[in-house]
Fold this protein.
Amino acid sequence: MKKIGFFLSTIITISSIVLLSISFKGMPAIGKLLNPTTGFWQNAEGKKFILPSVISEESIEKKVEIYFDERKIPHIFAETEHDLYFAQGYVIASLRLWQMEFQVMAADGRLSEIIGEKTIEFDKSQRRLGLNFGARNKLKAIEKDKLASELLQAYTDGVNAYIENLAPKDYPLEYKLMDYKPELWSNYKTALVLMNMSNILASAGDDIENSNFVAKYGKELQDKLYPKFINLEPVIPTPKNGWFKTSNDTTTIIKDEKIVTTLNTENKRLDKVKDPKKYHIGSNNWAISGAKSKSGFPILCNDPHLKFSLPSVWIEMHLSGPMSNAYGVTFPGSPGIVIGFNDNIGWGVTNSGRDVKDFYTVEYKDATKELYHYQNQWVKSEFVVEEIKVKGKNSVLDTVIYTKFGPIQFEDFETQTGKQDIAIQWMAHKASKESLMFYHLNRAKNFDEFVEATKYFDCPAQNIIFASINGDIALRNQGKFPINNYEQGDYLQTSNEGKVWKDFIPFEHNPMQYNPERGFVASANQESVDSTYPYYINGGFENYRNRVINSKLTNLKDATVAEMKALQANNFNLKAAESLPLMLKYVNTSNLDFEEQAVYNLLNTWKFVNDKESKAAVFYEEFFNKYYSSLWDEFGEAFIPPSEAQTIYLLKDSTKHPFIDNKTTALIEDQKALINKAFKYTASKTKEFEKVNWGKYNDVNFEHLARIPAFSKAIEYGGNNHIVNATRKQWGASWRMILDFDQGKINGIGVYPGGQSGNPGSTQYDDMVDEWAKGEYHKLEISKNKADYKNENFTKVALIPNIK
Amino acid sequence: MRSFLNIVLMILFAFLTHKFIPFWWFFAIATFLVSFAFGESTLKSFFTGFISVFLLWLSLSIVISVSNNFILIEKVGALLSLPSSILLIPITAFLGGILGALASVSGYLLKTISD
């Protein structure tokens, strides 16, 4: 009897422990999570610093000193190049390990290993996009380069040294919630971080939708609705004496219209577009010369816009090594400083938006898909079997077909003439060593060294801004671009007529502006150049922010940092200023009811500023969006509607509106009726918006990377797309930096909406969100003098060699 | 008095296992062993096991939360959709208490067999 009692009680005890250690249906194991010794409680950061004050590591060459400020911004002082990047990897891992790994698992198409069945389709699509293929190609290039491989390896070793020291109780919280373990880092993963950025910034391509449009409505209408060049204040204005002369006869190449003809006769109509890419753009950068500043020295500003998230996409730090002293932000997982400054120069980026991804319909010999037509020959397809591991389930196998162009991104794509495979050729897939640009920028001393550093940057193409302490300013549209025929890359090409890119625009022909007469350089994702540039370019570009910034900078005199801050926070809505008066002109004011009259008056007196308190901004947004969507509603999902800028241009002169004249299309709309309908709709929302101002409507949310609402943060904030302060929902200024080149010294200020720690249990998880939202900045301390950090505001951590 | 001593022993012992042994459930060994050595009755073993781990986990989670300004407990409470995140403290303590009690009873029962 006693024995039975003992066994029963022991079995109950053990099975309770076991049950509490297993996760069910995505719910974390309760015992593992809740116990105070290894569970989530251990992630609650207390007064003790996250790292011990002395850490000994075998592969450290000389002593490294790290001083963390109150925001946990590290100042790393290393005596060897190896130690600098080793320590950077170590420190970033200690702050952002989960994020680093999660983002590359997503890029690599491996989320199902962590999350389970839910993400199998996502993983498949990532692999069909070939993010892993691109990362492998980049890794090969890096491994052939001594400097690049040493740089990446030191960083990887630093990350791994941290991981190897990590006890399960110290795993970041997300590992505990999803019940898995960190893997070791690798140089391949560092390459994936860049692929991730290329996917966000240089993966848009409207080739399929454009082809659809031509097939359905014809080329003439397309040219009217989707003009190739707006020619409005491009990033790099045409030089006074015109562009360079190209040695080979590019004019004949450019004027070749063969691609268009092919389309009209052979294009297969595609009904559904499965991958609608929206342009979420909003980055700005500018630099003014000493002629425009009060100090007589340049001021450089940059606010790159990316998707808001927690942990933030950026991490801020100071790297001081034997050959360099740089401060700025970088991506967790990427060595060096990506945007920032050193003792001599400052630099920043905006996305270029030029199209570097082309699509090809693949013609196979037969249903086996083993041979496809390329340049009138049958070429062997390569079948790559991708194994997607799934948490708690068997692996899923997916075969991706590779062509000479790249992978088939869309297999069995539904078209009117049957199923079609579509391959992509993408600059992001090509071998390159972008990390080296950052390495050299961190060390560059002047304009020449800046230009030299940009040689390493192929993709995602950027507008890279520059200023130096000797007073130079410059802006460079940098990337690697194939030389395209006229309109090549705008439409689907056939695998037979398409060509693997061989000729690229020479580096010295990339658009650049150096110390221009106007006293400033600036970019805001607009067209890189206008139509006079000798090579054909295409892409998705901005039309409003650039003009607001340029007009402010043109009129600027004796500028100080204060004016620069104001411009980064500028909420003037040029799009509204150019469209609302036109729209209101059409509104029939003779029989408005009380509510409609009130809304009309509100809009009519609005100063076009999207501050968070504004009510009018809410009604304008509704009014314009309703008009826009009802004007183009026939387009469905197989087309991309014309841009907002083009819509407004057509509104200016409705006689030019192709759909007004074109009585045969089903798209005939009466401008006036449409606008009145949209206005009445907007006014009818008066009640709904009684307590809604723009800040609420704008719905700004910093979402946790795994979309955990409890770890996310929402704020009320102004701005909008096409506004300099381009903040809308989950997009906005991911980093704001102002560099004042005063008397041979660079005084930097900056802020990013997030926090240095990736740990939701840390004060520094989101402490800079409020700082950012209030328009505040903090000083970016770049002093090389360690004594400046030896005080109570800093926590010191030393990495010391462990001699065995 | 002996129960009180047992509780103190269990707390000390469990606390040490927490410090040095990486398995979250190892505190159960502590209550098990103490009751195996000094347990008085099934009921008393249950209560000493419960109270010791309950108190230990309660104080650990309170100390952690206070020094963290309740930042994390707020977020985890919201994550688990608790009406109030502070409930996590008693829930955690209760969970530990029950397991401590079960192990303690097992320890005592083993003692009765071997006696």
In short: Confidence is low (pLDDT under 50) at residues 251-256, 661-668 of chain A. Chain A touches chain B at residues 2-3, 5-6, 9-10, 12-13, 16-17, 20-21, 30-32, 34-47, 167-169, 173, 177, 708-711, 760-763, 765 (CB under 8 Å). Residues 574-692 of chain A form a domain with the Penicillin amidase (Acylase) alpha subunit, N-terminal domain fold (CATH 1.10.1400). The radius of gyration of chain A is 28 Å.
